[in-house]
Amino acid sequence: MIKDTVEKLINKYKTNSPFILAHKLKVNIIYENLGETMGYFTNDYRIKFIHINNTLSEDECRFTCAHELGHAILHPNVNTPFLKRYTLYSIDRIERQANAFAVELLMPDKLLHEHPECSFYDIAGRVGIPPKLVVLKKQ
Questions:
Q1: Is the dihedral of CA 54, 57, 59, 63 positive or negative?
Q2: CA 138, CA 108: separation in Å to the nearest integer?
Q3: In the chain, N or C: fewer CB atoms in 10 Å?
Q4: In angstroms, how far apart are the furthest CA atoms of the chain?
Q5: Which backbone phi and psi does 64 adopt, to 5 degrees?
Q6: Sequence-distant (≥ 6) Cβ neighbours of residue 35 within 8 angstroms
Q7: Residue 83 is part of a domain; what is its CATH number?
Q8: Which of 16, 41, 9 minimizes the C-alpha distance to 129?
Q9: What is the pLDDT of residues 52-87, one digit of tens each?
Q10: Structural domains counted in the chain
């Protein structure tokens, strides 16, 4: 399901850039000092925002944007920061889905086919996917 959603987005907008997709989907991106937090997504009065920590590297920004875009598309009405802080609700499944979305977006099958000389993990590293999350890629 997540892979299909990502493939439809890439085909429709002809890009896998999370920044371009956010712009086209009218999701605002705000860079700010978030301390230890890499980023989060909010939906305030139907206005969508991705908040990205302004201290992140370029690769971390790209992955964070892709992850938060996953929340914007898959969980637009779920406030994970609130759930994490004020409830006992486990957000593990929601976070895993957002991570899977980011992995599929940043490393689509087309990219793998275009670079058969590169290993799976080399490509993941080049597009900024954390090594521990590569396992979320659906073949």
A1: negative
A2: 9
A3: C
A4: 48
A5: -60, -45
A6: 53
A7: 1.10.10
A8: 16
A9: 999 999 999 999 999 999 999 998 877 676 556 656
A10: 1
